[in-house]
Description:
The structure holds 2 protein chains of 2 kinds. By secondary structure, chain A is mostly helical. Helices cover 79% and strands 0% of the residues of chain A. Chain A has helices at residues 2-29, 34-39, 45-55, 61-73, 87-122, 127-141, 144-158, 174-208, 211-218, 223-260, 266-275, 279-307, 309-314. The longest helix of chain B is centred in the first third of the chain and has 28 residues, at 2-29. At the A-B interface, α2, α3, α5, α7 and α8 of A face α1, α5 and α11 of B.
Amino acid sequence: MILRLVERTAVLLVSLAVSSVLVFGFLAVLPGDPARVALGVNASDEAVAELRRQFGLDRALTTQYVDWLTGLLHGDFGTSYISKAEIGPQITDRFQVTLWLVVTGMVIALLVAAPAGTVMAARHRKLSGLALSAFSQVGVAVPAFLAGILLIMLFAVKLGWLPANGWTPPAEDPGMFLRQLILPALSLGLVQGAVLTRYVRSAVLDVLREDYLRTARAKGLRPFPALWRHGLRNAAVPVVTVLGLQLATLLIGAVVVERVFVIPGLGSLLLDGVSNRDLLLVQDVVMVLVVAVLVVNFLVDLLYVALDPRLRVSR
Amino acid sequence: MKSYLSPVVALLGSVTLLAAAACSAGSGSSSGSSSPGADQSLAIGLVAEPASLDFTTTDGAAIPQALLGNVYNGLVKQDESGKIVPDLAKSWTISPDRKTYVFTLVDNAKFTNGQPFTADDAVFSIERVKTAWTTSLKSAMDVVQTAKAVSPTELQVTLTKPSNDWLFRMTTRIGAMFSKTGVDKLATEPIGTGPYKFGSWKRGDSIVLQRNDAYWGTKPHFGQVTLKYFKDPTALNNALLTGTINVIGTVQAPEALSQFTSNDKYQVIEGTTNGEVLLSFNNSRPVLSDIRVRSAIRAAIDHKALVETCWAGRGKLIGSMVPPTDPWYEDLTSVTPYDLPKAKSLLQAAGATGKTLRLRLPTLPYATSCGQVVKSQLEQAGLKVQIDQLEFPAAWLTAVLKNADYDMSIIAHVEPRDLGAVFNAKYYTRYDDPTLQQALAAADAGDEATQVSEMKKAARRLSEQAAADWLFLIPNLMVADKDLKGLPKNAITESLDLSTLSR
């Protein structure tokens, strides 16, 4: 158990170090000069060179990398090239917004997938199971932004029940916050839910074929209670893995959904940063996303152990 | 068996409940803000969000659009018809040698930090352009020799040479008046003398401006104006349709206008801008340095059909680098009319038939759609066109604008009176023409009549030399609530003037 923890932590740290080099490296070779974008179409080469010096872009790449990393380790994200604002508070602000989307999306996905997947598995030879299965196939094929556009057309433009876009922080106006959250969270959650449903279905199907379930049925339990008591915990292990992986997909989905719904989250911060070549900001945001995904995967690894006692013994 | 279904039923139930809750909440807040009152607010949907609030160090049209004329005043400004009219300067005189300007300033203007506006602030602002500004626009102030405060309300500016262009540039952001004690936080807390003061900025979402109750001129109707930014044109349209905003400041997808023209809740405003959409040529490339090839390209393009296809038929054909709101505008579309046989024979004569030209497009909606039309039309005349796309702004700026690594490109030049800035040997057009430069110099130095006649010469010269092709002029398309008054028909200044709006 301890060994596993140490091993997973080491993997996490190495992954973080490697990804910091990759993030920095990719942005360093990205074509386009932040100083030229800031100074505009008629800027002279001298003015651009001077601004590059002010931004610190004329320093050696290794120096830039080390300075950046040292700053990050001290919790200092630096100051944006373009807006001259501190990056740290911007990321915190925007991350909260995206977190609401991702977490609500994830909850909706689970609420859809767990029951639907279980029913699909339990009735996989029956019409209702097949119908649900076909329905989830459609869900898998629809990207989140399309789901978003369709939801806007129906619920905002046609019916006028919900706002088409925008964002209000929960502390400012909880009612408005909720109304604006529903459509984007649904577009993320329904699509992810459809994907997750297929994993839940196959995990439950596997469990259904296990001997211990036959035994449970044999001692007189009806199918659903047997599954509930003995099967679901076992089925949860692969599903949790997928859930961890899906978090990354949800974060990416949020970038697009934020654009469709005009939500000032991490995704829109990232897109603006890229188009303005606000490289330091982009570096910081990508790094935060990488850390989030790696840490979640690390936690998922640990969660297996909690779910499946056999893993504790074998290590 | 039924027990399997219960979770699904429960889930469906909860979704229905959510929808019902949303429905009842929605009907409450959709009632409009039509009752007249002093503290009405207005929300305007725009496309490009500023990257910073400091236009002295960051380029981009979005910053002056929000702040100039609203938060900042200049000494002079341009009215909707293109005339230069008083702002913080009540009046001005020009010396007979056209080198000395004396401005009489208003005496009741105050900055939002409480300081009064005086001639000292004007001197400070003019000199600061030379010392602290970093964007390329600052070169417009190079012609100023001295600026001095004769009295608190009298400013004297002496130029090194006569320049009509200088006074015009003073109507743009270059002429914005700053407080001597209010320039520490330009990027986040702008301070000016305008009808509105800066309220707040939710990055990635909106900028809020509050009415400046200490404003020296006529106070604006709306107590609060929110500028809301949308990257996605559909989201922008939906925001108006659902009442989140009252105005679409710039229509990005003219093909989607019909949903508003057919709805009597909205008014559609159509006018002109300064945005000439250029099919620009790299005039230093061997093939394109031949005027026959350039003229052939102009003759091969059916501009009417092009605008119909790529900008829903909206947008004026101009034929040179002058919008209709400039005093020296002439319709020059007849200089090189659409004539495919002539284009073919010109190319043949120049030995350019079958040559390949690289059309490098920025990732902007009008460039992408017009690029395809240009390609197919030029190929009918016998040229080969190879299209590639460059991310805008970053990649396009470096490849095309800085390195001039291109044959042709498509871009809207939206700066006002930019004929001289765009067509010279140093700029990406690489257009080296002493005759043009002579006309421009004479226009800058002369009196008003000379300026007009020389600028006409310059524009005609450009068109006849086919220094570029002018695809069309971007229209000013706005959609707004029916009862909103005071929206400008033409968008020809850098600012979106909010002070004239009312219900």
